[in-house]
Amino acid sequence: MNTVVEKSGPYTHGGNSIQRTMFTVLAALVPATLFNLYLFGWPAIFLFAVTMAACVAFEAACVRIGDGSPASAIGNGSVLITGWLLALSLPPWAPWWVAVVASAFAVGIAKHAFGGLGQNLFNPAMVGRVVVLVSFPVQMTAFVPPKPLFSAGAPGFVEGLGVTFGRGVNLDGLSAASQLGFVKSELTRGVPAHQSVEHLPGLGELMWGFHPGSMGETAVPLLLLGGLFLMWRKVITWHIPVGMLGTLLLLGTVFSAIDPGRHADGLFHLISGASVLGAFFIATDYVTSPVSNGGRLAFGIGCGLLTWIIRTYAGYPEGFAFAILLMNAMAPLLDRAFRPRMFGRTLKGEPLPLGKFK
Amino acid sequence: MKLFPIMGGIHPEHRKDLTSEKAIVALPMPATLFLPLQQHIGEPAAPTVEAGYLVKKGELLARSDGAISAPIHAPTSGRIRAIAEITAPHPSGLPMPTIILESDGKDEWTDLPPPIDDPFAAPPQSIRDRVAECGIVGMGGATFPSAVKLGLGTQRKLEVLLLNGAECEPYLTCDDRLMREYADEVIDGARIMAHALGAPRVIVAIETNKPQAIEAMAKAAAATDNVAIAKVPARYPMGGERQLTQAVTGLETPARKLTADMGVVVHNVATARAVHDAVRLGRPLISRIVTVSGGAVPNPGNIEVPLGVKVSELLAFCGGADGAARFVSGGPMMGQPLPSLDVPVVKGSSGILALTRAETRESEPQPCIRCGSCIAACPCGLVPMQMAAFIRAEKMAEAVRIGVQDCVSCGSCTYVCPSHIPLVQYFRYAKGRLATQDRERRKNEQTKALVEARNARLERLAMARRDAAARARAPQPEAAQEAGRIAP
């Protein structure tokens, strides 16, 4: 009897799969997302559904063009994460076509034009967000204060449909700046940061997201919980989140101490904007971040640094998406620079000096 | 004992409980045995028998042929049927010259060499000679001739013999059972080996998932003054020579050096028992303990088998292997796929595994998602995903630059890869390609040197002719005469 030998060992496997990894990430996002959807009501639910559906549709189309199997491509869950994170990074009351355009760029251009799963240089969700942010600044900065489902003044099902799919509501009366945008615009009016921050809700409320902003800017404790869950499941390591949040905290604290009029403090940076979502769920995207732990730490620090610089000195109050795309471009360089030390060799690759057993 | 961390590594599902409580049983002597001339690293053995010879158990069938080689002995008494080409237990499935021995059913011993009465007083060379004569090779699977490795102390001062009882491969329990059931023999053999090496101490390293083996070995070691037990954590590939050395001594073997350069020599526990048998009883290596396991085997166990039994016969003894998706010789991590069940058990066969699809968990490879699991798992500090990417693009020089030649093929990266990418396969392919390139380069250099030598010779000849012709045209008669002698 002859057996088949077409492959070398090992002939056993740990059982991990792309699918398992991706669905663990999705599971970690569920609590915070449910809270977000509750907080922003029917329009947010519709926008979330539209974004997911659009991403899945574009994935299926692109895979079909490439003669792949759409079912298995969607089944591995990677496009679901893209859609999910993209939805969380949009203003909850944005119209449907913003989501569709963002999805087209995220999945079609950022992911599949670069070769599909595992080949993309830039984080697809962030490409999608940035494209619509620079193309449709009005829609992308029209934030509404949270109107939790079934609360007084919250749009009902039909009204919600109107917000997402209709000709849009006049947001002028409703909209407000996100807290980072608020601090920024107050600064341009000459109001020092430490004073404008006082007009914002307390840190506790900011943390839970009872303020205008993108969906994913809320429910910091739930996002943190999800992030810790991912670390516990060994899906991510601590290096990127700690590098990024640590840098933000450090820079915020130091510079607000030096010049409180110009700089918001560290804790404010941590819990506002997409800091926590980004640090745990977006920056840690495998494909677009470095592969070694040293590289990841450097990557996280870079994300924190650039986020802080853009938030503080550039025209966009929400710096995270730009920061991460810039750092994505750095990932291959960081991979080169932070290779692990080979066994029996120095970091430079020379043999170690000979030890002697005593 | 103070222990040290190792780089990377994984915690595979060990699946040792299938056989860990099965005591060693002897396989009934098969009617026919197949003994390949090469069961070790180095030169194949040279037959000393021919078809029709009658031999006794333990008699020499093929002698060691070269500095790195090992002899082969008859596992039972009987008649040599033939020396023929038989499929070798190697993934290539290529045939190899094999001595076929028909048992006469008497299992009669030949006159064995006398025991070495006090091996610790005997010159180390006599121990090495006995080990060489008895055909002992590294029984952990590497099959390097043990006598050669016991000579490492002749050029260096050795401090310790590290006896490898880690048995970190999943499924395998042959060393575990050996240590439980033959602890005294193993410790005695180890001390004899230490004497041959000139190493004053022995440390037996056993993974903590084998508490009974640790207990038995500690008991046996208590009667001696130079044997200690190190309980190393269960972490694959702890049993790798360099990993084990690092875990026990804290010393990281520099690239291109041997552990022996640091005063440490590693031998397997089963080798120690074989040395005991050779020195104390004069017995050559003619049998070994094999773990027969896997989900497809109804009665898995640890079987003491004569070398040369066909795998199919051994599996039949354990109830067959219906429904197996893979047959492996050795452990599932570093073992070799079996090209056929018609191949014999050899000196390095630590396990015969018949694995079901549920156990192998084979799956179509998916794209790399750069998760970095392979980097965290690599005990050699390499970047497997990147090496594989270079090899896919046939960029061998780049793959070498980032260390593909330092890969020990332990399989940890492939085990953890969520995309089921056969990383080890890429690395084996690259190493094969590089070896071929190296051979070709050397061949080209040789050819070039030969061509250059020939051209130079022809040039010299042509020059001589020209000179002769010039002289011939010249009016001196002596020169013309001389040219006449050279020209034809």
Model description:
The complex is a heterodimer of chains A (358) and B (488). Chain A contains 16 helices and no strands. Chain A has one domain (18-337). With 358 residues, chain A is mostly helical. Chain A has helices spanning 18-65, 70-75, 78-88, 96-112, 124-135, 137-140, 157-165, 179-188, 193-199, 203-208, 220-232, 239-258, 266-271, 275-282, 293-313, 320-337. By secondary structure, chain B is an alpha/beta fold. Among the domains of chain B are: 16-20 and 115-288, Rossmann fold (3-Layer(aba) Sandwich), CATH 3.40.50; 365-488, Fumarate Reductase Iron-sulfur Protein, Chain B, domain 2 (Orthogonal Bundle), CATH 1.10.1060. Helices cover 34% and strands 17% of the residues of chain B. Chain B contains 15 helices and 17 strands. Chain B has helices spanning 124-133, 146-149, 174-181, 183-197, 211-222, 241-249, 269-281, 311-317, 357-360, 373-377, 384-392, 396-401, 412-416, 423-473, 477-486; strands at 25-26, 32-36, 46-47, 54-55, 60-63, 72-73, 78-87, 95-103, 160-165, 201-207, 227-232, 264-268, 287-293, 301-306, 326-329, 336-337, 351-355. A 6-stranded mixed sheet of chain B has the order 1-14-13-17-15-16, sandwiched between helices. In chain B, strands 2-8-7-4 form a 4-stranded antiparallel sheet, with no helix packed on it. In chain B, helix 11 packs across helix 14. Chain B is globular. At the A-B interface, helix 1 of A face strand 15, strand 16, helix 10, helix 13 and helix 14 of B.
Q: What is the element string of chain A, with H for helices and E for strands?
A: HHHHHHHHHHHHHHHH
Strand fraction of chain A: under 5%
Mean pLDDT of chain B: 93
- Indicate the CATH topology of the domain at 16-20 and 115-288 in chain B: Rossmann fold
> Which regions of chain A have little confidence, pLDDT < 50, spanning 5+ residues?
none
How widely separated are the two ends of chain B? 83 Å
Instruction: Examine the secondary-structure arrangement and name the CATH architecture of the domain at 16-20 and 115-288 in chain B.
Output: 3-Layer(aba) Sandwich
Regarding quaternary structure, what we see is heterodimer
* Shape annotation of chain A: globular
**In total, how many beta strands of chain A?**
0
Radius of gyration of chain B: 27 Å
Assign the CATH superfamily of the domain at 16-20 and 115-288 in chain B.
NADH-ubiquinone oxidoreductase 51kDa subunit
CATH class of the domain at 16-20 and 115-288 in chain B: Alpha Beta
User: What count of helical segments of chain A does DSSP give?
Assistant: 16
- The overall pLDDT of chain A, averaged over residues, is 88
Counting DSSP H or I runs of 4 or more residues, the number of helices of chain B is 15
Helix content of chain A: 55-70%
Helix content of chain B: 25-40%
